Amino acid sequence: MTITIDAHAAIRDLEAAGIKPEHPEAIVKTVSRADTDLVTKADLKAELHATIASLERRLIGYLVATVVIVLAAIKYL
Hints:
Blueprint: H1 7-16, H2 22-34, H3 41-75
């Protein structure tokens, strides 16, 4: 997801609000760069699905190990 910022309008608005002329440009640059670090809903969903898949594999492994142990115990009884 990309946020589009009208940098010129943002700088004008900040200067009109009384911020010193050198600060609005720095503020707009910082906000524009911060956009690349945002996490999207799709990112979170992908991470969640990967985690669930990993847990499913581990649970299946534990289940198989348990069945093998139980069968081995039954064989030696």
